[in-house]
Amino acid sequence: SVASFLLMFLPSAGPSAQTVVQAAQKQGVYLRDASNMGRGLGTHALRSAIKGPLENKKIISVIKSALSSV
Q1: What pTM did the predictor assign?
Q2: Which of 8, 2, 61 is nearest to 37 (CA)?
Q3: Cα–Cα nearest to 10, from 52, 51, 53, 41
Q4: Dihedrals phi, psi of 5, to nearest 5 degrees
Q5: Is the C or the N end of the chain the one with fewer CB within 10 Å?
Q6: What's 9's DSSP letter?
Q7: At what angle do helices 17-26 and 53-68 cross, to 10 degrees?
Q8: What is the pLDDT of residues 4-29, one digit of tens each?
Q9: C-alpha span between 54 and 70 (Å, rounded)
Q10: 47 near 37, Cβ under 8 Å?
Q11: Cβ-count burial of 29 within 10 angstroms (0-12 exposed, 13-18 middle, 19+ buried)?
Q12: Of 3 and 59, more confident
């Protein structure tokens, strides 16, 4: 089947999904902390909608920035 979102798992040694979501919102990018979406996903599960090429590049840039700022 086809989904319009991507489920990602951030490095366990890095910031939690909640921290990345908050950092992304400050840059106008809206991600979802997926830790409460199912058993066993953990605090580093992050969900993002799939957008157009430019928006996807911005999402990747924001996530990289949030991960490198720790």
Answers
A1: 0.87
A2: 8
A3: 41
A4: -145, 165
A5: N
A6: E
A7: 120
A8: 999 999 999 999 999 999 999 999 99
A9: 25
A10: yes
A11: buried
A12: 59
Return the pLDDT at 1: 66
- Residues present in the chain in total: 70
User: Containing H/E element for 32?
Assistant: strand 32-33
* Cα–Cα distance, 14 to 3 (Å, whole number): 27
To which residue do tokens 């928006």 refer? 55
CA-nearest of 13, 1, 10, 3 to 60 is 10
Kindly state the tokens that stand for 13. Answer: 């040694």
Res 22: pLDDT: 95
Element at 29 (helix H, strand E) = none
Amino acid, single-letter form, for residue 24: A
Q: Token pair for residue 66? A: 């949030």
CA-based torsion, 34, 38, 44, 46: positive or negative: negative
